[in-house]
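Appendix B.2, paired examples.
Example (i):
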Amino acid sequence: MTEGTTSAAAEGADTLTRLEQEGEIAADYLEGLLDIADLDGDIDMDVEADRASVSIISDAGGRDLQKLVGRDGEVLEALQELTRLAVHRETGDRSRLMLDIAGYRAQKRSELSELGAKAAAEAKSSGEAVKLKPMTPFERKVVHDAVKAAGLRSESEGEEPQRFVVVLPA
């Protein structure tokens, strides 16, 4: 390799290293937060779908961690944004880090995938567009992916925070 050029493999390794660094920064930030809040939790880091992913899990059933999820994941969304800001402060780069606490997002992803598949089946059988209730960007992305996997198209309509998914018939 000559100076000034990079191979695809080296670029991929650089991205992985950058995402791993984001995960490390996020984990340190969240460990400090858990200490301040006097909450117990283990932090798990991963890289999935070209973004850093950090999860806080609990051995004790996660009741205490539910405080960090909040109603409908509102506190989780806020903590994710704060964690992304902490990463940005350290790296200077905008982060797309995904945070999960006590398995909330994993459970939500499963429910939303099912909702997307059902809406796709309904659009196929009725031949009409199916409009879903307003959702967060994370929720809409999961539904869009499920609809695509079912072989249909979907789009988002409306303005935040009332933006929603419309599943289009074939």
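Example (ii):
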Amino acid sequence: MERRTLSLPGWKTFFSGFDWRSFYRSKTAVICLAVILAFILAAAAYSIANKTVVLQVDGKASQVKTLCGTVDDLIKAQKVTLKKGDEVIPPLEAKLKENMKVVVNHALHATLIADGKTSKFISCRSTVGDALKEQGVNLSGKDIVYPSTDQRLKEGTKIRVVRVSVKEMAEEATIYPGVVRETDPNLASGLMRVVKAGKNGIEKRIWQVTYHDGQEFGRLLASSSVSRSAVDRVVAVGTATQVSRSGMNIRFKRALDVVASAYTYTGHNTSSGTPPGFGTVAVDPGVIPLGSKLYIEGYGYATALDRGGSIVGNRVDVFMNSYSQARLWGIRRVRVYVL
């Protein structure tokens, strides 16, 4: 098989027959060289002028490729609006350089509430903490800031500084005695008798009191110690359910000591709907239920059938047949047995 070789005779003929000496001496060669040189110089100038910088506006950074020569040109090219009080770093007249960082912080209006005063200020700082430093507000380790110091400062932010202090406070607290109950078969059921009076004790307490802006916010018990122990109170509790009165043995459920007054005819029936008569007693139903059968020392047997507005607690009102008898009874302390 015959092997053929691909050739480009046209180009070969052109280059071999071209008069390069005449071309170099011609005006065309001079123009071409000038164009090429201008292109090379333009490319070099573009390469030198084109820079990559970082533009940070209010904390947000972005990488920008620019031909601008100054910071001012860059800000205008990026359409960043400046107003009075805004902060630009480096200054507007500074020349841009490769990898330079340009920071723009817009001035923000804020309110500061601290140390009992409210003031308004303008700041270009990015965080609440930096704004407080700028305003000369020193914080202790316990002070509280709302919003927190790491939060970004925004237009109209209200910053509140709460001054926190902790102090120790000592006090003496009363330790109340316990009650020891002992049964007494000789004492009527429902009654109690003090056998031994108790005595209060004293406890010394150390509190850690936290103050917010001078006002107590909370307290924590740091330590306590007993400087005097309390003495228990001993009480005898009656268990007897039978008593002898006027030669009669009276069995009862419970007894109670009351203040007894007397009343006579009022023209009205009792709360139970019955007309009053001797043996009718007004009571506090919360203490003695209506309908209860009673034995009242100095009066005799009775029934709780009535109530009165002034008969509250351990208080009863016994019925007498006449006003003179009621006056003679008066007001006295008596023992009532609930049968």
